[in-house]
Amino acid sequence: MHDAFAARAILRQLPVRIESAVAYGDRLLLGTATGALLVYQVADAARDRPPAVTLVETKRAFARRAVEQLGVIKEAGVLVCLADGLVTLYDLHTLSSATPLANTKGAHVMALHTGVDHTDGIPTLSSKLAVYAKRRVVVLEWRDSEFYKSFEHPAADRIVAMHFAAPGLLVLATAREFLTLQLPRGQWDDLFPADSASLRTVVGAMPPAAHGPDAAHSPPPAAAPASSAGSWGSWALGLAGSAPDAKTTIARMPAEKLLLCHKDIGVFVNSAAKLCRTDHAEPILFSRAPLGITYTSSYVVAISSSAAPNGSAAAATAAATAAAAAAAPFNVEIRNIGTQALVQTLCLAEEEPTHVFNASGGKQVWAIGPHTVWRLVPAPIQQQVEDVLGAAQYDEAISLVAQSDNILESEKEELTAKIRWLRARWLFRDQARYEDALAEFSDLGAPPTEVIALCPERIAGELAEPPSDAESAAGDQDPPSLETDPDAKDGPDTKDDAADTKEGAADTKEGAVGPGTPAPERRKQPAQQDADRAAWKDALYAVMRYLTEQRRWLQQALGDGRRELEYTVRLLDAESDTDNDRAAHQRGEEEEEDGDDDGSLPRVRLKRLAFSLERMAVPVAAMARVVDTTLLRVYLECSPGLLGPLLRVKNYCDVEQSEGLLLEYRRYTELVDLYHGKGLYRNALQQLQIQGRAVDTGPLRGTYATVRYLTRLPEDQFELVLEYVRWPLEAAAPRQRQQRQQPPSSARSESGSDSDEDWPAPETVVSMVFADDRPAAEAFPRVRVVQFLRQYSPELVIQYLAYVFGTWHDEAGVLHDEMVAAYLDLVGDAAPGARQKLQQFLRASRTYSPERLLARLPDDSLFEERALALGRLGRHGHALGLLVFSVGSISLAEQYCVENVAQCPGVFVRLLKILVAPPPPDVVDNEIGAIRADDGPGLADAAGLERARAKLHRQWVGNLLSAHPQRIPVAEALPLLPEDMAFSHDILTYLRSQLCALDQDLRTGNVVRNLGTAEDLQARRQLAQQQSRFVVVTETRTCPRCLKRIGSGTAFAVIPAEAKGAGPTVVHYSCFQRSRSAETPAPALEAGHGGGDDDDGSSSDTPTDSPTAGRWDMLTDTVTISAVALAVAGTAFAAAPAPAPTHFVRDLGSEHHPDGRTVTVTTTIHKSGAAANSVSLAAAALAGAIGFASYISVSLPFAARLARGLGPDLNKEAITIPRVTIALAIVAGCAAYALSAV
């Protein structure tokens, strides 16, 4: 609680009893029990003097009896007086001209209201007076200072209190219930019963337990009713009514609200008489039943008797009653309107107050006793907020600032944000309500650094800050330490990240205390230590969730390319304690006391809010670095298993700080992940090497961790890979030799490891680092890798190159040469199976260099490999000589010939030459071993060796000829055979095979020749058949589609005959195209179009018409064209009596008709040598005349009749009316020709 008001007695020991009072402006009116009216002038209080009053006037005969109630209608200049059961109106300025209201006789309750009325749709200043008298409610109304009207409404029950909720709504109270009366309609509505149980029920919640500053003075809540909210049991209590001495009160509150109070319970309703469930979710509980209630902008002021509490408070438990009795006596109770918490209690010692009211819109509060008048002077708003903040009552401070009318509206938001800021810090440090505090910081837009700074130093690092002076003064003790024992960081086993470390990092040996904790703190009991550890973990998990959410937002901002984010940053005011500020602070307090009516409000300056909140742009990268580093610290304390997921992805942890923390907690695996994420690959490999050589066991013991990390490096770190792969290769070689020489058990004991997987073999290292399907391994320079591996073992080179050839299919010659060199090294080391693998590779490879191989081969050995290299160079004779004489194996020579016969078909002939020819002198002795193996060891002289060699070779010659007859031509083999060579069965088999092959080739040639002749004849027959197909186009040939002549140079199409024996049909190409578009779509044309123009110049471009649409529209044009064509035809007929000339047909291609026939597209070129004469000209003129006459006399009527009678047939045959007209014109032209011939 804090001191919101100071009670100052203005008038003491008056000789008369005060029954009523009212104040307006600087006047205070007191109504006495003798009917007198005392008028005082009030001087406002100052800082150095109390408020003073001066008696201005005394109206002794103001009323005949005691003045029960006074009211002022300032807008109408009326003083309302209720005395002797009658309401009388007086002039406010002269206090004379009494006007008694006869219809208010018997009144005992009245209510006044002034406001803007919208009843008639026009905003009007309306003042209303409501009086209850003799079971009716009388309402008088003034509009714009003039009396307007009065009306009455009957009441069913006796009214004990009433007040206006709005200009058209009156809230009333009886002894049993609360009612509403709608004006001027007079409609009565029930609100709820006027009893304590009902007031608890209608609000929808049971009375809350005392909390905050209200806890020391509020009794515990009464027992809840047996029935649930809204049940008939609760309403039955209301229907039963209250005790006869219970007082029901209705009081005006700020923001157009009313407080309906019965005994010690009150509820708030708005201007529509609806419960204020949003702003006041719980009923307000007074310590005692109020005798009178008034308000200021922030507080409810209630007066009561200082005797023992009654009502629901008297029904409390005995313990609560004893506690209340032990408390200091009071008769004024002040509560916050918003929070309903008890703010202050005052004891007016002179006598018990009987009335309380306010003036000047709640800025003045007066308390009236029988012979004493008090003024409740509010404390400066700065002092009140300071006191509330000093008591850590931040909710009260927020409510006070929001409701105060002594603070500028523009300043309220800033003060509220600052108080919420302090409240969030207080919740985090003093109340252990971490989630609420972090939610408050997030709502304020605070940067994560503000939250981090509240954590202990082991979490916040250099951002940690001690509690401020305001926070230290707010609490009675220091905030609980969240430090853990530093020795606990070595407890977790580094092998288990998820289980052991969660307990080991948080549990402590001494409890949740640090080195700086006071001695009493270190001697906590085990239960207290467990509670501290639980609080420590709760704080860590709350901060972890908060930082994770902040990290997500920062990552999203970075992903969107944003460089800065705006936060609300707290800036300390460095000059807040200067003398100037303190003087300004004092001046502000004085101005607040003296400036109630001048309309100016001073700026609030609070020592505890000596900081400012500003929106500032903060670099996203810098904030992300702080958040990630702090999150790493939190993970180390409570969830080490989450370190890996944080460090293995992209993060912004500070490398220097994180490195020290991870080393301190022995989190070497996570340290390697940190180095890798920051691109510090060398640091990671150094750490792996140090831990791999460590004596104690751990997850990084041995070389396997190093090898596995090398597989994570990108391709541009090849030099680093070569540098640090040496250690795994060098460490594996002696261990392999040691394990081969010793039993497995002794080898494991000496190595210091329980598993050989920690020390992989060199082959495993190569397969993981180099011979792997990773893109980085594939991009490594392979020649460099081979050169590096050659330093350790040729087997490693062969292993790597085998993977390169088999998986990546690299056919580089230099790599194949390296493979050959590695195999030669193995052969030199007498490795088993090395020569066979080398020979297999030489046979399979096509890109190695045989010259380099010959240079590396020794002169006295490896003849088979030399022969393979010579064969690659094409020196097959030399190679076969080596195999026959130096190696002494004719079977190898034969195999060589089989392998190379595709490249060199005469290789078998070369072998045959070598076998039948005498050997060179320098290789005779080399065959001694082979010959003796066949003919016996007794042959030692040269003649014997020669005979044995000749015998052996001649046997192989026969075998060679019989085994490969198709590969040795007989024309080349027979001249090579010696004359004295016996005709053996092998030679007979060879000759028989050769003869059969020659006969087969002869027969095959005959068959191929006959097939070619038959194919040639068939082609000639098809050509003649195609050349025999033709059509004749004369000058008289017309298109059956359009009935026009197919003229010279006109493109046309030939349609094959539909029936057997019929000729092909020749049509214009344009007509053919139109028929295709009118019918079902056919396949695309394969042949082209004609290159000339039609006779009439329009047939190829005429659009396709339907059989019915537009037929008569084209009739006139068609007949006119027909007449012109008739004249031309008559001229031609008359001028050319001889047979038609020869026409030349040019084939343009073929197309596919929709019915499946093939259409030939051609064009004609013809010439006419006849000349025109006078008879022809006359015939032409006559033909034109007859054609025009036929159009007039015959075409139209006949065409009309023909269309009516033969319409379906015409449509079916695709014959149109214009075509019929043209036919008639042609008949007339023929007649003209006959006449001209005569």
Automatic annotation (TrEMBL):
Subcellular location: Endomembrane system
Biased segments, Acidic residues type: 589-599
UniProt xrefs under InterPro entries: Clathrin_H-chain/VPS_repeat, CNH_dom, Vam6/VPS39/TRAP1, VPS39/TGF_beta_rcpt-assoc_1, VPS39/TGFA1_Znf
Transmembrane domains' residue ranges: 1177-1199, 1220-1237
Keywords: Membrane, Transmembrane, Transmembrane helix
Bias (Low complexity): 733-752, 1099-1108
Domain called CNH: residue spans: 15-361
Protein name per the record: Vacuolar morphogenesis protein 6
Organism of provenance: Coemansia javaensis
Gene name tied to this protein: VAM6
